[in-house]
Design brief:
There is one protein chain. By secondary structure, the chain is α+β, with helices and mostly antiparallel strands. It has a single domain (5-100), classed as Protein of unknown function DUF952 (ADP-ribosylation fold, Alpha-Beta Barrel). It contains 3 helices and 10 strands. The protein has helices spanning 12-20, 27-32, 40-50, and strands spanning 5-11, 22-23, 35-36, 57-63, 71-75, 81-85, 89-90, 94-99, 102-103, 106-107. β9 and β10 (106-107) form a beta hairpin. The longest helix has 11 residues, at 40-50. The protein is globular and about 35 Å long. The model has no long low-confidence stretch (mean pLDDT 96).
């Protein structure tokens, strides 16, 4: 069974855009044609791979069910399925958010 919650890593500036209205994606999202999301188990590796050294990061928990058919599960890094959003992300889809905080090798999930 696929997780009900996906996670989006955002810079502080991107999070400001999300809070103000509609987030259509970071530059990499726009280039790929969808908003990259991760599952809880993929989150730490995503941050290590794409956000190393950045300190102004926010993690947003996204209720995937509210996005309906706009979420596609697709094979990506290491053959794993990742949730990809083919649409716009709004705060109505976000159930929790907070700064990226490490607890050992894992990211603390927002509650």
């Amino acid at each position: 069974m696929r997780p009900a919650i996906g996670y989006k890593i955002l810079t502080a500036a991107q999070f400001t855009v999300l809070r103000a209205g509609n987030f259509t994606g970071a530059p990499v999202d726009m280039a790929d044609g969808y908003i990259h999301l991760s599952t809880a188990g993929q989150l730490a590796e995503t941050v290590r791979k794409h956000f190393t050294g950045q300190t102004d990061l926010v993690v947003a928990a996204v209720d995937l069910a509210t996005l309906g058919n706009a979420v596609k599960w697709e094979i990506s890094r290491g053959g794993a399925e990742f949730p990809h959003l083919y649409g716009t992300l709004t705060m109505a889809h976000v159930t929790a958010y907070g700064p990226v905080v490490w607890a050992g090798d894992e990211i603390v999930l927002p509650t």
